[in-house]
Amino acid sequence: xxxxxxxxxxxxxxxxxxxxxxxxxxxxxxxxxxxxxxxxxxxxxxxxxxxxxxxxxxxxxxxxxxxxxxxxxxxxxxxxxxxxxxxxxxxxxxxxxxxxxxxxxxxxxxxxxxxxxxxxxxxxxxxxxxxxxxxxxxxxxxxxxxxxxxxxxxxxxxxxxxxxxxxxxxxxxxxxxxxxxxxxxxxxxxxxxxxxxxxxxxxxxxxxxxxxxxxxxxxxxxxxxxxxxxxxxxxxxxxxxxxxxxxxxxxxxxxxxxxxxxxxxxxxxxxxxxxxxxxxxxxxxxxxxxxxxxxxxxxxxxxxxxxxxxxxxxxxxxxxxxxxxxxxxxxxxxxxxxxxxxxxxxxxxxxxxxxxxxxxxxxxxxxxxxxxxxxxxxxxxxxxxxxxxxxxxxxxxxxxxxxxxxxxxxxxxxxxxxxxxxxxxxxxxxxxxxxxxxxxxxxxxxxxxxxxxxxx
Length: 456
Hints:
- By secondary structure, the chain is α+β, with helices and mostly antiparallel strands.
- The protein has two domains: 4-81 and 91-214, PmbA/TldD fold (2-Layer Sandwich); 223-455, no CATH class.
- 21% of the residues lie in helices and 42% in strands.
- The protein has helices spanning 4-11, 72-86, 116-131, 201-214, 231-243, 248-253, 255-260, 314-319, 353-357, 407-413, and strands at 20-36, 39-57, 60-66, 100-103, 136-154, 159-177, 180-191, 223-229, 274-277, 298-303, 306-307, 328-329, 338-339, 343-346, 362-375, 378-390, 393-398, 401-406, 414-417, 422-424, 428-431, 434-438, 440-443, 446-455.
- Strands 1, 2, 3, 4, 5, 6 and 7 form a seven-stranded mixed sheet that branches. Strands 11-10-9-14-23-20 form a six-stranded mixed sheet, covered by helices on one side.
- A hairpin with a 2-residue loop joins strand 15 and strand 16.
- The longest helix has 16 residues, at 116-131.
């Protein structure tokens, strides 16, 4: 095991000066291409090596990050000194069995085996396809792949090596008519599979054509309507509007959230079932151990409309009298792990799309997304596409809309869940200055009654 002796030697003796100590080392290799307009704007291949030490004493945490692996004992001493300087209460950490393990990357088609020239040729081709559509004014294309190897050890005796490989791409086309600018695009990603960015010609051309077509699409009047969300937007909804409220640190540190996110609270009908977990295999938020060495789990958040679980690090689990869930994650060695989502899902129901459309005389079908914001239980999301629903049928495209509301009222009005679960792996999550963290989210189609919409 590559760094085990160095890590264990540096940790030796730390237990007598701190209640707990851990070391995490990282090796990273990254490739990135970005296009702005008709031109390749950035092409880069970078490598990194670094690590950190985290220690806790009497409830106070110390953290030291570094780029040189020399003299790890000094780095341990620095983190321990910080912890002892601020500690003054009691250290609380959930119990986790120390594991010793080596976890290889999940690989389908390794991007490291694809030449930079081949990656550039493919992205050049997609850029040319965007510009082949009449009416396009600008384009944005991003390709990236990352290899991250982590080497983790702690004073409890754990030692874990873990390797992950990610591939992402974002393709967006813009069309302009005077001051009116419309855009359409898509994001995608995978864990260890370069093939996810191949054979996208039809998707690229479709996105460019949709951007142009939106210039002549009508805006709709705002107000409350029945809205059906596709799996991509519904997945973003559960991640942003509900998932962040399920993170143990957010709940523990906020008195208002503790009052509204209590176990046993009923949010809606029996068709509501939400889950988060890195133990769901093969997704961008999947792993075997989190960045504290806790094994991944699959955590039920809502079952049959009732709050039954939340996401934890070792510290938040202990402080709230619950169990660590393997959700302590850091985007890189220069950050400490904090509570983060992994793969967040609305579980499939029994309805098909036709069932959800039935009886909707004047509604809106929304797909994809471009952004959003949440503030406690309030949310606002922008759809990437919107279509009118009349007499149970999806009809003409309209300008994208914004969905706004109170999460808890919206969950009460969420009266239909489809059976067509789909996963969105093209995004990244931001929290505490750490962004974009690899995650995925998913859902079937869902139907919400009395949803407030407005022109985006």
